[in-house]
Specification:
Strand 11, helix 12 and strand 12 form a beta-alpha-beta unit. This protein has 408 residues and is α/β, with parallel strands linked by helices. The strands form 3 sheets. The chain has a 5-stranded mixed beta sheet with strand order 5-4-3-6-7, sandwiched between helices. Strands 10-9-8-11-12 form a 5-stranded mixed beta sheet, with helices on both faces. A two-stranded antiparallel ribbon has the order 1-2. The protein is elongated.
């Protein structure tokens, strides 16, 4: 970044860059990380302290860790800088996380987290109202006001262009899952970003999950609907309308036939096998169907424990996953495909079956197929990471510039 923040001095932006990654730092450490002289580094640091973007810490002698000589001045980003908000607005759920913007380990903490169910039958207006209400409640729980928000990022189950707008859907699904959120949230924060949920899952996996250090991978959201966040050569792919990795393609793939995710695939295979007489209604799986509701996690748990009927189901769903990963592998040539979402914690029996079949599905070397460890919050984690980046690159420099102008 290294913006001059309206001061005409790139040194101010350079110091701010160092501050975001260093935690506590000294002028000497700024010099080592940049090309600044000592006097220039100190002047830039003092400028940022004056506008409350940086704070000066107690020196090492006062902290009891310095024994001789003159202790170096130490600095860090101000803990009062503000907060960021990450949201996962799925088809049937909403998660809101309010957290500190400062990435320092001691200050990086969640102030509030709310997760509620959404009614997929709600209109766009009702859905927008519910999302804003949940955001209000999360801020109240966190004890922060709207003027403390630096950036908001929301993940939605729809393609999203660079202005936060989703294209029209034949049945209105995308307009409902992204009910004008860019406009609704525009006055809430200096930076508001609306993103496709699978792309945020990919960001989460690359920053804190199974894709750290990997430059070519796909984060496959798989619980409710299939959708892929695609990273090639270290870049998250987007497309003209934000539609890279959109799951509607699977409606047209023989052996998949639907963009609905593993939850529904497991339910459909269980019912088909019971109704076709392949699974005894008196067995554990058969009794699940007789009780009316097929719990996918129970099916996966039974498969892991060796239940033959459950393993029959997971083998068939594994074939579906192999076909999906084969398509993704042929299109994007990833080194790794990470299955994400709430189902990931118990999906190993399906993935084991898929791995055996995957080499037959593509001519390229098969990607590594693994389950995410980030659970149901993977999209929220990616949203928080994206909001923090927006705060670092845009909101905080804007804030510092405003404060600097006020001092002149």
């Amino acid at each position: 970044m290294s913006a001059d923040l309206g001061t005409g001095r790139a040194s101010v932006g350079a110091v701010l860059d160092v501050a975001w990654t260093a935690g506590e730092f000294t002028a000497t450490e700024v010099m080592a990380a940049t090309s600044l002289t000592r006097s220039t580094a100190i002047d830039a640091i003092d400028t940022l302290v004056a506008v409350d973007v940086l704070r000066e810490l107690p020196n090492a002698r006062a902290a009891g860790s310095y024994r001789s000589g003159r202790p170096a001045r130490r600095f860090a980003l101000s803990p009062e800088l503000g907060v960021v908000i990450g949201m996962d607005a799925g088809d049937t759920h909403l998660a809101v996380t309010v957290t500190t913007a400062v990435p320092d380990a001691q200050l990086d903490r969640t102030l509030a987290h709310r997760r509620i169910d959404l009614d997929p039958a709600h209109s766009a207006v009702e859905r927008r109202r519910t999302i804003l209400d949940a955001l209000h409640r999360a801020l109240g729980e966190a004890g922060v006001s709207r003027d403390q928000i630096l950036a908001i990022c929301v993940g939605v189950a729809a393609p999203v262009d660079r202005d936060g707008i989703s294209p029209p859907h034949p049945q209105g699904f995308w307009e409902r899952t992204n009910p004008g959120l860019a406009e609704a949230l525009r006055e809430w924060a200096p930076v508001v970003e609306i993103k496709n949920d699978a792309q945020l899952a990919a960001i989460a996996e690359g920053s804190t999950g199974a894709a750290i250090g990997c430059r070519d991978y796909v984060a496959l959201l798989a619980s409710e609907r299939f959708g892929g966040g695609v990273v090639v050569d270290g870049h998250v792919l987007h497309g003209a309308h934000g539609g890279v990795g959109e799951g509607v393609v699977f409606d047209h793939i023989i052996g998949v036939g639907s963009a609905f995710g593993l939850r529904y695939a497991l339910q459909d295979q269980v019912r088909a096998a019971v109704e076709g007489g392949e699974i005894d209604r008196a067995g554990a799986i058969g009794r699940i169907v007789e009780n009316g509701r097929v719990d996918p996690r129970l099916v996966l748990t039974l498969a892991s424990s060796g239940d033959a009927d459950a393993q029959l189901v997971t083998e068939r769903v594994g074939a579906t996953v192999a076909r999906i990963v084969g398509v993704l592998g042929s299109m994007y040539d990833p080194a790794r495909v990470i299955v994400c979402g709430a189902v990931a914690e118990s999906v190993e029996p399906v993935l084991a079956a898929a791995r055996r079949l995957l080499p037959e599905e593509l001519h390229l070397p098969a990607p590594e197929l693994i389950a995410s460890a980030l659970g149901a919050e993977v999209v929220t984690i990616g949203a928080v990471a994206t909001a923090r980046r927006a705060a670092r690159e845009r909101a905080v420099p804007q804030l510092a510039e405003r404060r600097l102008r006020a001092l002149r």
